[in-house]
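Following up on my earlier message about pyridoxal-5'-phosphate. Here are the inputs again, as you asked, copied directly from the submission form:
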Amino acid sequence: MTDLGLRYSRYVNGVAKKHAEVSNAMFNMETVDWITNGVHPTTWVSSGMRKLYNKHIPGWELDPGRLVQALTIPKEEVWAAHQASKLRLFARVMETNGIQLDPDILTLGFARRAATYKRADLILTDVERLKKIAGKNKVQFIFAGKSHPKDDGGKRLLQRIRQASKQLKDSVTIVFIDNYNMEIASLLTQGVDVWLNNPIRPREASGTSGMKCAMNGIMNFSVLDGWWIEGWIEDVTGWAIGPAPSDAETQNANERTYDEQNDALDLYEKLEKKIIPTYYENHDKWVDMMRHTIALDASFFNTHRVVHEYASKAYSIDFRGM
Ligand SMILES: *Cc1c(COP(=O)(O)O)cnc(C)c1O
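Thanks, got it. Here's what our run produced:
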């Protein structure tokens, strides 16, 4: 059916540039174009950030491209709005998990469908290293996720996270929130400090939860796959995990073309040497990165831009005079 659809459609697109490249290689096509996904701004922005954008960037709801002006929002206001969302998330964690989290500790979030290629447990590759890095309450984690009822591998991943959260409770705080849904996704993508994403490349077609974070000025810490290849500027909008994508892996999407274990090493290195020091020792830079995340990523990875692209590229609607 995929081949049939591909050959007889007037227009075919992937949901990120990389997705189009992989699709062209997989299906022996040359014409698969891309329209990179976006998220619906008012669905995913926190009420605090929305008020901030309304105040400083009038008209942004009708034209989220105007979020490029986020660099003019005073840093202390960005931080205050962010901490409000963080406290709201932590209140929920207290209610559902009975765990009191400290809002001054760097908090990484990870929530998605628990498909095995998304590697929810990559952070547990070297538990001793993780303990050293997170030691003395330098970083805490909040996880959420659901697997398909028939995906036993996915279920095992979630069990592993839950077990680790119990076993490591005296050395690394890992909270697992049950019943992942849009409400939990909302709380997390508005309230954590960094969004972790470490799939096996090049299998993440897009990865929209990272865009939800960008809408709230939250940096991504992610494998260079899907939308992140287009949204990533190192130390400006977030951080990459692992090497830049290669042509070989695009051509052989189902083969292992690089050492995936290196992703875990790189994750530990960057968390320890870049992310933790910036959070605790360079607050100014941190909040400036938050503003750049809004200005560079939220201004583009939104549904207003997506609908325009579909209308003009896929449906050939002429906007002149509209
Ligand atoms: C956004 C969202 C997803 C998709 O997130 P990905 O980053 O693409 O995995 C899945 N489930 C829920 C509940 C979401 O809100």
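One observation from looking it over: The chain is about 50% helix and 10% strand. Hope that helps, and feel free to reply on this thread.
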